[in-house]
Amino acid sequence: MTSIATNVHAVADELSLRLRDFHRALIHSAAGDDPALKNPYTFLFAVINDPRFAWMAKLSRLIVRLDEAAKEGEIRSGADLAAYGREVAQLIGDGKDADADFRLHYRMALQVNPEVAIAAGALRRVMAKLPPVGADA
Q1: Any alpha helices (H) in the chain, and if so which ranges?
Q2: What global pTM score does this model have?
């Protein structure tokens, strides 16, 4: 079995992919069956400007930072990835550092949309590959 140090780029790519899938599922869940959002341009502008999507901004910024860091070669170790894992855990986790607003919206989406549950499960499987924060891997 290879260590995370040798697969750090592959795991970073997989984490990014799963975060984007999760983000997409949350967006579709928040949009629901709103007929005003059937037009792709209207939908895009709603995601950017509509307050019902604002709670996802932290996740959006996290994805962008992860992708930029990977592109710039700033993710070199498991410890680098662990920091991103900690941020994801703060969004979807149960700990004292959890983001209560994000978690509330996420849990509600999880209850009503199977796409969110599937994406969250795939994200959690990638998270399990990350070393704990403070690991030297």
Answers
A1: 8-31, 40-49, 57-71, 78-92, 100-112, 114-127
A2: 0.87
